[in-house]
């Protein structure tokens, strides 16, 4: 019989408008799962405040004081969604048999938890939540997301389409994930490379109850760049191939020019020269930009800075029923 202590890890960033409702729904779901014997009564909800600028941490603090099923972590500043998820999982793995990461907006259907847990009990170490459709997304987000998944596939990255960060990891999978030390985090691409027995659960995306999405265009672009540069070196190889083809083209042009010169066919080539110079200049700068992205990632990795800094932790051991401990 596998252990059934579940921890829900919930990254939060400026979620004061809907966090109270989210906490109530999650607590009710946890209680229902305990009541039917799916999970142990020591199961908990871990809220990770990713450097919010509103009252998110005050709400988390209040929830932890009122209900011992809640615990909280606060970052010293905003480190990003991926770091918040990782911090929560690494904290929870000490106590949990399984951890499920879920967003605070509850767009990821919490009722799918039953199927996640069932897959885990049947032997899966990793269970991926996959949305049935993207009907709740706007045209731009839907189009860019589709292009991103196709681009990652072309670049040789093993990434599961329509899977965000709604997933279950067993303790064994969490312990393996802890061995990965890179600063450039892209969990959606990293976790599938671990090779554990996995399963999938399909779910319908719900409408956000309050607030608005915190994933701006800039953050989505940054996540895409991190995903490509952390999981694939194929762009560097494409630059090599492109450079070789341009070199062949240049050699051909040089031979043609020499032949024209020898035959006395000296034509005015202002337009051709200008176009070739612009094309080659653009390709050169673009190639340098791609190489620079990889060099920048290497630079950050070699400095070995912490992926996040925890400012405060509100934690109460499951067996402690009378007081809440706060560590700073």
The CATH topology of the largest domain comes to Spore Coat Polysaccharide Biosynthesis Protein SpsA, Chain A
Q: Tell me, what is the CATH class of the largest domain?
A: Alpha Beta
- Supply the number of structural domains: 2
CATH superfamily of the largest domain: Spore Coat Polysaccharide Biosynthesis Protein SpsA, Chain A
Helix content: 40-55%
Strand proportion: 15-25%
Kindly state the number of beta strands. 9
- Coarse morphology: elongated
If classified by CATH, what would the architecture of the largest domain be? Alpha-Beta Complex
Q: Radius of gyration in whole Å, from Cα?
A: 25 Å
Distance between the termini: 37 Å
Number of helical regions: 10
Provide the residue-averaged pLDDT: 81
Tell me briefly what this model is.
With 328 residues, the protein is an alpha/beta fold. The protein has two domains: 6-216 and 306-327, Alpha-Beta Complex (Spore Coat Polysaccharide Biosynthesis Protein SpsA, Chain A), CATH 3.90.550; 234-303.
